[in-house]
Amino acid sequence: MSLRFYNTITRQKETFQPLEEGKVQMYTCGPTVYDYAHIGNYRTFMFEDLLRRYLEYRGYEVTQAMNLTDVDDNTIRRSKERNISLTELTDEFKSAFHADLKTLNMQPAHQYPEATNYVSEMIEMISDLQQKGYAYKAPDGSVYFNIEKYGQYGKLAHLNPDEMVSGGRVADDSYEKEGVRDFALWKGYKPEDGDVHWDSPWGKGRPGWHIECSVMSTELLGPHFDIHCGGVDNIFPHHENEIAQSVCATGQDFVNYWLHSEYLLVDNKKMSKSLNNFYTLRDLQDQGYPAEAIRWMLITTHYRQKLNFSVSRLEESQKAVNRMREFYTKLASYEGGGQEDAESQIKTAQSQFILAMDDDLNISGGLAAVFELVRWGNRAMVEGALSVRGASAIHDLMQSIDHVLAVLDMDSGLSTEVDEAYIESKIEARKQARANKDFAASDAIRDELAAQGIELIDTAQGTKWKLK
Does residue 250 lie within any of the structural domains? Predict the structure, then answer.
């Protein structure tokens, strides 16, 4: 089966065919840098990282651009609340965002366009839309996109054009489907904007949120590219508006595949700052949860399924990572004298992993193939049936698959201060628990140490430990 993705615009899975053979250009929605991103945001960013990593695993050369929204309603409002400049505010949270990406072992994008660096290009696109009859100036100096002029408006969000309310305008950056109106491309200056404004043919003001991504994506990837990603909350109005203004400005198709990740929930409600039910990465690390557990939790539920956050899910994630790491370490030090080279098992695991992931990133099916190999390999090592050559080949496969998962060698992100005597006492207690066949207590000790960033490795010479 060929690689397929669920395309939001067609509401079906489609075979992936890039515009240029062997190469993929993708634009991924990044953060609005007015606060720390919460792990609901990171669910989307993690999905985008998983997608890129898997495309690379399948041999594609990927070019990724991820925008940083550093001027919009939220950034201006927050800078005024804190009585600092817009640049001071956004620089602080840009740095925090990049630090979080490193902690979560996400690959850096090739480009991080910042909206404030593309204002002249935004003015140019808005002027072009106005000249073509798709935009008009309002009395307050704002410029609006006329949705009635674009006959396919609503095709991404599957809105019924006959039910749209025409003739009104909306200046807010984000709004609900019920608020469909002509949307702002350029916002005429208002006193609440303070010193955040630029000169333009329509007077001083600032760009609307939606035009920012249209300009940055087309400037970096061209007017027509392969993949555009984001969370489901971006479908409308943001991505719908991007399509309208981009297609009308360039006359080209804009994007071939639209991929959107579902919400991260807390108590079955969307995690969001507006509901004050969110956790930042720093919140979870302060509570002792390692970065690899957070990464695993965010990538191992299919991106189009809602994910309900819980502490127990984090703990289960850490157990899964520990199991993979222990297996990976055992393979590297294995010295058995068996004859089994595991060629059949490796081929099956690899083909089933690819078969699952080719089906719209079916991570559950992919991991099932990996853990089946882990079960078989552990048994073969215990029985002495596996050859050193076989162990090495499985180790290589695990390493290659980890390009997609990216958890085997990542740092926990927790403090590196350790009490060696304490760790040794825990190892001894675990040894006694195992001797008494109290495996629940043994597992609890392992998990307790894992939460502190300490990995236990069982070898023929006894239990070793290392910092993750």
Answer: yes
